[in-house]
Write a structure and sequence with these properties.
CATH architecture of one domain: 2-Layer Sandwich
Order of helices and strands: HHHEHEEEHHHHEHEEHEEHEE
Radius of gyration: 45 Å
Strand content: 5-15%
Number of helices: 11
Structural class: alpha+beta
Helix content: 55-70%
Largest sheet: 5 strands, mixed
Shape: rod-shaped
Length: 497
């Protein structure tokens, strides 16, 4: 017997299996590579067809997504209520409808048996031409109103109703138990069902109550669905309202903290996960406040020490004989003072100022009037409610930086403020050279300068736009740059109010 040569990837022992595994994996990758490439080629070719086939589903998904509520409360209600209502509908339709169908067939069979007995009596005892005794028995004992009409043909057959369970049940039972030509009327709105049976040269006309032949389930079905859905909806609303309220409180607290407002009465509540999120938010808030407090303390110390040194410089310069060199050194000291104030203002951010209801129209007019007094051509306009909750000194500095920047590079400046729809928007337009779109985000970086030096504030530190954006973001908004209708730059402050 010839011994088979070992497979090149045959693994012998534990060590061999580990050593040979990279070779086996490489072989498998080489084997799968043509298949995967073929599948990718097929998918690329089929992509246009798949896009066309999936277009209706995408359109339906977009419409459904647009129609769905956006709030967590409403979505949670739908998630809870919709499956239960669908399940109840299916159960009611499958089981209850089958139950009522069985009951209806049994009632119809019993009624047809009574009619068959009457037919047998009429055919067995034809001596009485008026059938008075049979009519009395049918009415008193069976609850049926009958009459025998000689020489009358059956009415023409009407089209069968599509959803009538009673019509099909009665027709089947009459065909099986009586086996004679018949005509029935079950579609009428009355409480009676009419049955006519051909008996030779005469017609037996039977009127039976609809309740004798049909078990109606529509009212019970509607009551069951509406009643149970209402109970489930009430329970879900009460339960979810208590679960959603802590999330809303956490969102309001985070929004207030982002706008720099004081948070006093927030405590973690609700489910365990919501409590963890609330506790994490409180810890983050405390850590940020500690960091801001430490930075403010450090900057206050640095500011005090540097101002002391600058004050000594001024005193020594004042004691020297006044000449051109001394005056130049005094100007340098003044420039250092302005630059120091700019750096400290940017680093400090005036975090200690509280949020107050402020007349923004008067504040804007104050800044605009100050620019007019130094010779700039500037106009201001305000629309809406002038009272807005903000930090007045910070906002005034933000607006002042933008207006000073616009006045420095344009001959005409327009300030337009609008308070509407929960937002305060202030647009500062000028007719200067503007800023290229590619540079509009970079100018907000600290110390970044363009060739036209649009980011310089009065201190020459290159922090004007950076300070303005930091102040706007501390209020929960932002500063954006665009093209002004005057042809220059438009700087827009947008904060929630």
């Amino acid at each position: 017997m010839t011994e088979r040569p070992p497979h090149p990837f045959h693994r012998v022992g534990r060590i061999g299996s580990w050593l040979d595994w990279p070779m086996v994996a490489s072989a498998r990758r080489l084997t799968r590579a043509p298949v995967m490439n073929a599948m990718r080629r097929w998918l690329r070719r089929a992509e246009p067809v798949l896009s066309v086939l999936l277009a209706p589903y995408r359109f339906l998904g977009q419409r459904l997504g647009a129609a769905m509520p956006k709030g967590l409360y409403a979505r949670a209600l739908i998630i809870i209520i919709a499956p239960i209502v669908i399940l109840q509908s299916v159960v009611a339709f499958v089981f209850m409808e089958r139950h009522w169908q069985t009951v209806t067939r049994r009632l119809s069979a019993a009624t047809v048996r009574d009619i068959a007995a009457i037919v047998d009596l009429i055919e067995t005892y034809p001596a009485d031409p008026t059938y008075g005794e049979i009519i009395r028995i049918a009415q008193d004992r069976l609850g049926l109103i009958i009459s025998v009409v000689p020489g009358e043909p059956l009415p023409p057959a009407a089209p069968k109703p599509f959803f009538s369970l009673l019509d099909s049940a009665l027709s089947d039972e009459i065909s099986q138990q009586i086996g004679k030509p018949f005509w029935i009327d079950t579609v009428g709105k009355s409480n009676l069902v009419e049955v006519r049976i051909q008996l030779g040269d005469k017609v037996l006309r039977v009127l039976a109550r609809r309740s004798q032949t049909y078990a109606s389930n529509s009212e019970i079905f509607i009551f069951w669905m509406v009643g149970t859905s209402a109970v489930l909806l009430i329970i879900a609303i009460v339960f979810l309202r208590n679960q959603i309220r802590p999330i809303q409180q956490l969102a309001d607290a985070a929004e207030s903290f982002g706008k720099g407002r004081t948070i006093e009465e927030f405590k973690p509540r609700g489910a365990r996960e919501v409590r963890r999120a609330g506790a994490a938010f409180i810890e983050m808030k405390d850590r940020i406040n500690r960091q801001i407090e430490q930075r403010t303390t450090m900057l206050a110390g640095v500011s005090h020490d540097l101002r002391t040194v600058l004050t000594r410089f001024r005193l020594q310069l004042a004691l020297l004989r006044q000449n051109e060199d001394v005056r130049a050194m005094r100007r340098d000291v003044d420039d250092m003072q302005r630059m120091l104030e700019g750096y400290l203002a940017f680093a400090r951010g005036d975090v200690d100022e509280p949020t107050l209801p402020t007349d923004v129209a008067a504040l804007i007019e104050d800044v605009v009037s100050g620019s007019r007094r130094v010779g700039h051509v500037i106009s201001g306009r305000f629309e809406g409610d002038p009272i807005v909750d903000l930090r007045p000194s910070e906002f005034k500095r933000c607006l002042g930086n933008l207006i000073a920047n616009a006045c420095r590079h344009g001959s005409t400046v327009e300030v337009t403020a609008v308070h509407a729809d929960g937002w305060l928007s202030v647009a500062v337009d000028d007719d200067g050279p503007g800023i290229p779109p590619a540079e509009r985000e970079m100018v907000f970086r600290p110390f970044y300068r363009l060739d036209e030096a649009r980011n310089l504030d009065e201190s020459g530190t290159g922090l004007g736009l950076s300070i303005a954006r930091d102040i706007a973001r501390a209020h929960g908004g932002d500063v954006e740059l665009g093209t002004a209708p005057l042809g220059g730059l438009r700087a827009t402050i947008r904060i929630p109010a």
